[in-house]
Design goal:
The complex is a heterodimer of chains A (136) and B (419). Chain A has 136 residues and is α/β, with parallel strands linked by helices. Chain A has helices spanning 57-67, 81-94, 105-110; strands at residues 5-11, 45-47, 73-76, 100-102, 116-119, 125-128. A six-stranded mixed β-sheet of chain A has the order 4-3-2-1-5-6, covered by helices on one side. Chain B has three domains: 7-174, Aconitase, domain 3; 182-285, no CATH class; 288-413, Aconitase, domain 3 (2-Layer Sandwich), CATH 3.30.499. In chain B, helix 1 (7-13) crosses helix 2 and helix 3 packs parallel to helix 4. Classes of the chains: A alpha/beta (136), B alpha/beta (419).
Chain lengths: 136, 419
């Protein structure tokens, strides 16, 4: 799913179910068994291997997009229908854009939470120098 | 580039079948592009998980489709909603929330879906058959349809399921395709006593471990000596689809696509993980988050309780629950009706238990705030309740659950689990 976005990375190698895992009222990750529990993912570039479990993940992500509490972009290590579908429906319903981009497993492993990332319309991902980041 | 479109697909996109069908087909085509699907395929049935009321966006989506003349093109069943439609006032559901959840129910009914309102559609008369291509949402229903029945569905995200139902078309991807249905990891049971394998509570525990080990791979279970029943396989799949991305599992000698280990795996060199009793004990322990023996409610029925499970429960219901601990069973309206006719609900009610239909504690804000500590025999409830409800949870067998409701505190028989 194409689109431009920027934000600080929030990275985990654990998959996440948004249902029971993501509070669409706040953007907080609420799955207590997940390493990112308690972090807020609104406006961040969320990096996950894939979505775990429930079918309702796309419904929760659509709510978050409408409410403005969604991640700025989601990077996964494989095609993730649950995130892609929410992005397509958000575009159809509200004209909202959520880039969902596949990154190689090795590149995802090198990403660190807090790094400023910029995603271009063609899907390229730039790591912005911390000194040049705008304090987001 | 999307796969080749049929004349009917083009007519759908052009709006010949109305604006709802056109939007649904656009979503299907865009998904096919994302998935790089080689073709579209026809489905014979759908099960809609998008019925769960999550918020305004999902309601707006459902009403836009219903108002746009959406009409399902294939027989379509409905998953749980956000509301026990006729019984919600007995619980703590806010009235404004109930109104929106009900509007969402009405929107899906208007599109011609059958009001089954259950997360166990495979235990209704609408269950699919071996080899059929279907589009199902609800993770536990998907895994049962694929694994136990041998029907073919990918794990449908909410919102895509209704698009498939309105068009009868899906991208040919994932578990729809024979080449993606072979096992990618083998879990071999070693030294797991047969007595334990025959216990109902073995299956949710093993399922939870299965999901964690398998991740997004298709797992094959080897070395199971017991012959699991339908409700045991239901519990296994629901647990695995909660803790992992399992949309299909095979059990050698049990499930239809696994007559032998060789037939079930993609190639002879797949990883094998040995599962020992200590692994199962650790998994069982992880399903409990509560400390101490305090208890507010026992809840059964995720996935929805079957008639057979009501028959299993009834003889355990001697006496009456403790005043402090409520007992709730979640099921479908159809099964509740059958259980009523069979006299099984009277047994439950004389014990002091209650039934909720159409929904469950995870999808309806029905529990009063004083209910903080839950006990369940369902790994799915145990998995999701802490995150969704903020509750503390104890996992136990059906017998443990009833005994605890009677005692007013957590009571568990650990004898079969000891090493």
């Amino acid at each position: 799913m194409a689109g431009a976005a920027a934000g600080r990375a929030l990275v985990s190698d654990e998959p996440l179910s948004f249902w029971g895992g993501y509070d669409h009222h706040s953007g907080e990750i609420i799955d207590r068994r997940h390493p990112l529990a308690g972090q807020n993912a609104a406006g961040r570039v969320l990096v996950l291997p894939y979505a775990r479990g429930s079918s309702t993940t796309s419904a929760v992500l659509l709510e978050a997009l409408r409410a403005g509490t969604a991640p700025a972009a989601i990077l996964t290590t494989g095609t993730e229908p649950f995130f892609a579908l929410a992005a397509i429906v958000a575009d159809e319903m509200y004209g909202l854009s959520l880039p969902v981009v596949i990154v190689p497993l090795g590149a995802a492993a090198d990403l660190r939470s807090g790094t400023s990332l910029r995603i271009e319309r063609d899907g390229t991902i730039a790591i912005e120098d911390d000194s040049s980041s705008r304090g987001r | 580039m999307p796969p080749a479109l049929s004349d009917r697909d083009r007519a759908l996109l052009a709006g010949d079948h109305g604006p709802a069908a056109a939007m649904a087909m656009r979503v299907i085509v865009r998904m096919a592009e994302v998935l790089e699907a080689a073709s579209f395929i026809d489905i014979v049935q759908a099960h809609i998980d998008s019925t769960v009321y999550v918020g305004e966006a999902n309601l707006e989506f459902a009403e836009r489709l219903a108002q746009g003349g959406g009409r399902v093109a294939v027989p379509t069943t409905l998953n749980v909603s956000g509301l026990d439609e006729h019984g919600w006032r007995a619980w703590s559901v806010p009235a404004d929330w109930a109104e929106k959840a009900r509007r969402q129910m009405v929107a899906y009914e208007r599109m011609g879906c059958r009001p089954t309102w259950t997360c166990a559609p495979y235990q209704t008369e609408f269950a699919p058959h071996f080899g059929e291509q279907i589009a199902w949402g609800e993770s536990n229903a998907v895994v049962f349809a694929n694994s136990v029945i041998g029907a073919r569905t990918e794990r449908y995200p909410d919102l895509l399921d209704i698009c498939a139902a309105l068009t009868g078309r899906v991208p040919g991807f994932g578990l729809h395709l024979a080449e993606n249905r072979r096992g990618q990891v083998v879990l071999r049971l070693a030294d797991v006593p047969r007595d334990l394998q025959r216990q109902d509570s073995f299956y949710p525990v093993f399922g939870y471990l299965l999901g964690k080990v398998a991740g997004d791979r298709v797992p094959v279970i080897d070395g199971l000596e017991a012959a699991p029943g339908e409700d045991q396989l239901k519990a296994l799949g629901a647990a695995a689809a909660s803790s992992g991305n399992v949309g299909l599992f095979h059990i050698v000698g049990v499930t239809p696509e696994a007559p032998t280990l060789a037939a079930a795996v993609a190639d002879a060199n797949v990883d094998t993980v040995v599962v020992r009793p200590a692994d199962l004990r650790a998994a069982r322990a992880e399903l409990t988050t509560a400390v101490g023996d305090g208890l507010d409610m026992v809840v059964l029925g995720s996935p929805h309780f079957s008639l057979a499970e009501f028959h299993r429960l009834a003889p355990l219901l001697e006496g009456r629950r403790h005043d402090r601990v409520r007992l709730l069973v979640t099921t479908s309206r159809a099964v509740a009706h059958l259980a009523r006719q069979a006299g099984l609900l009277e047994r439950l009610e004389s014990f002091g238990g209650q039934v909720t239909v159409d929904t469950c504690i995870l999808t309806s804000p029905m529990l009063p705030p004083e209910v903080r500590r839950l006990m369940t025999n369902s790994a799915k409830y145990a998995y999701y309740a802490p995150g969704l409800l903020g509750s503390q949870v104890v996992f136990g067998s059906l017998e443990d659950c009833v005994e605890s409701a009677r005692a007013g505190r957590v009571v568990r028989d650990d004898s079969l689990w000891q090493g």
